[in-house]
Amino acid sequence: MKTVIAFVLMLVPVLTMPTLSHAQPGAPAVIESFSDPALEKRARNLQRQLRCLVCQAESIDESNSPFAADVRHLLRQQIAQGQSDRQILDFLVARYGDFILMKPPLQSDTWLLWLAPFAVLGVAGAVAWVTVKKAAAREA
Length: 140
Fold this sequence. Notes:
It is built from five helices and no strands. By secondary structure, it is mainly alpha-helical.
């Protein structure tokens, strides 16, 4: 029993410590929202263009995952440092790959991603056409 009490007493300071920031030493403070409406609009627009790699179906603007929060903070830091939208997107693509973009570019390695929906639609249409023709032939 003494061991359990000692263990709990050792954990109390650890559990009550404030959480540490993920910011690098010397980095500017994390900006949750900009007071300038133009900068805030720009940040939100960029956040909608980036996919949460944890959720995958949501942008980082919609997601509540820790990954999305980290990328939002990183994005806002870069905007505060004066980076252009293109520089920010290029940095994130270099770091996480094209999959971080909600609309990845059509490239040789992503053509299947872009053409797969049309291929599935074509196959489904062909199956439906064959099924209708067989049913019509049976009735005739």
